[in-house]
Amino acid sequence: MQSVETMTERMLYWLSLNTQVRALAERLLERFAVTVGDLPASAAHHHAEPGGLYRHSLEVALKALEEFEGNIAMELRSDGSVDSFRSSHNRPRWQYATFIAALCHDLGKLFELEVRGKGETWCPLDEPYAEFGRRTKTPVASWRPDRQHGAHAYVSGFLIHHVLSRQDIAFMGLPRVLHLGSCLADAHSKESASALSQMVSRGDQASVEQAQPAIAVQPDSKVGRLLQTFQELIANGEMGVNGPGAQVYVEGDKAAVVVPISIAMARDRLAAKRIVL
């Protein structure tokens, strides 16, 4: 497991090709850390430990930035022209929007926590968590019993004012700021058509599965689907095991697959079912 410091440095590395972006990102990370403090990301699901929300957010942002480097998706402008993630002018702006969308995708979870200290109840709209903590010294946080699964995505944008500065907005430009706002609302949706939202969603899933490997083998997860497809291919005799030219080798409780052949075979099988791996 990577340390928070290592993840932060790796993120800043991806952003360092543009010195202005790195400087903006460093200041934004400081504001984000103050906003979420040492709060957890969930009650007992993933990243439930103190500081879990900050760590999970960093993991998602790092994974989204790494995917962005190889992303050739494009955004269609209202006039019909195409704004590519890789365009020389707007690429750094889309990269920065990706970073912010991924980092802030779970800000709405702050509304699902009840934090009290010195007879006061924290309101996330009014002040960042760390400021409330400094003022009340020993705040106590608990999850609200009436919270609804997935609802936090729709209110994450309400807290972005604690994180974004006017310099961030000026750098990204209005089209990307508007896209960022919509991404925060639908980043958790599997049906989103936005390339940015899909990157954030995949980063979120990868971070959760990394924290709780058991989630990865659930039937509706991507890893679960991959394993099920391997089993089907082996059962049908299409994928060889422990033989000359085999795609899978098993010894005891360990298994190895030949990449990319085995992955390509699984993708073809899933594509026939209209499932994208």
General description of the model:
The protein folds into two domains: 210 residues, Orthogonal Bundle (Hypothetical protein af1432); 56 residues, no CATH class. The chain is mostly helical. The strands form three sheets. It has a three-stranded antiparallel sheet, covered by helices on one side. Strands 1-2 form a two-stranded antiparallel ribbon. It has eleven helices and seven strands.
Low-confidence stretches: none
Look at the structure and give the CATH class of the largest domain: Mainly Alpha
CATH architecture type of the largest domain:
Orthogonal Bundle
What is the general shape?
globular
Approximately what portion of the residues adopt beta-strand conformation?
5-15%
Coarse structural class: mainly alpha
The major pleated sheet works out as: 3 strands, antiparallel
N→C terminal distance: 25 Å
CATH fold-level name of the largest domain: Hypothetical protein af1432
How many β-strand stretches?
7
Number of domains: 2
Record the strand order, biggest sheet: 4-3-5
Order of helices and strands: HHHEEHEEHEHHHHHEEH
User: How much is the radius of gyration in Å?
Assistant: 21 Å
Percent range for helical residues? 40-55%
Oligomer: single chain
**Mean pLDDT over all positions:** 83
